[in-house]
Amino acid sequence: MFAIEIRDIHKKYKGAITPALDGFSFFVLPKKIVGLLGPNGAGKTTTINILCGLVKPDSGTAIISGMDCMKEMDSIRRFIGLVPQQIALFESLTANENLLYIGRLYGLESNMLANRIRYLLERFGLDKHADKRIKAYSGGMKRRANIIASLLHEPDLLVLDEPTAGVDVQSRAMILEFMKEYKNQGKTILYTSHLMDEAEQVCDDVVIVDEGKFVINGAPKDLIKSTTNCKRLEDVFLHYTGRVVRDTPTDE
Ligand SMILES: Nc1ncnc2c1ncn2[C@@H]1O[C@H](COP(=O)(O)OP(=O)(O)O)[C@@H](O)[C@H]1O
Ligand SMILES: [Mg+2]
Predict the structure, then answer these.
(1) 118-155, pLDDT tens digit by residue?
(2) Residues within 5 Å of ion ligand 2 by Cβ?
(3) Residues 220, 205: Cα–Cα separation, whole Å
(4) Domain-located, residue 132
(5) Which domain holds residue 145?
(6) Considering the domain boundaries, does residue 142 fall inside one?
(7) Is 234 within a domain?
(8) What pTM was computed for the model?
(9) Which residues line ligand 1 at a C-beta cut-off of 6 Å?
(10) Cα 245 to the chain's mean position, in Å?
């Protein structure tokens, strides 16, 4: 069974001229790190939001471990951990307070939750800062705390939207290391990035999306081999998506 099946998804936002997703399909095998790669505005965040039940597609199906994202979100919630592009923590609460609050929303038992928070704070190098308010955290620290928040219930599928965008080198190395470690525990990871060197290094498979359409997928090594004159995944990416810059304003 696939961990994720996206079939022929169409999505046009209200007022938009072009669709965000235009018949997009792809599949993710379990226990892999899969990179969803594409230029600005390609439809990566829209895809992830559909998987997490935050955006409703106009048509098509999205299935996680055999469960329909449009109908069975209550069951899916236990299996999926979403790390959103934007930091989703309360600035005026400490990391510990934020994580306790989120863990309780998941209905986690308090001893188990306390242990899990302790383990994750230490794993992400934040144990000494557990009682500091999020607003005092650096960008990289916020990013790491944001990831911990999605891991409290130990999801089988971890979905991260641009987890390494704009973070310091050490935080990025720690995040990527953790992704590999989590995969080795038998988990599936889908993550978006526009950093091709990073994706080449960490992904078992990549899916390239452009203008809401599937472009190509495969293992980075195989794609590099099968595309003419390509030495790196970045060459493959430019080969398929072209060199025209995509200046989509973001809401960040
Ligand atoms: N809430 C929204 N309302 C209208 N248009 C949107 C909205 N969110 C995204 N879009 C548009 O949909 C397209 C895909 O966006 P997005 O999924 O955020 O791409 P990516 O994450 O790959 O940069 C872009 O053209 C973007 O401007
Ligand atoms: Mg995005």
Answers:
(1) 999 999 999 999 999 999 999 999 999 999 999 999 99
(2) 44-45
(3) 6
(4) yes
(5) 83-154
(6) yes
(7) no
(8) 0.94
(9) 13, 16, 20, 38, 40-46, 248
(10) 23
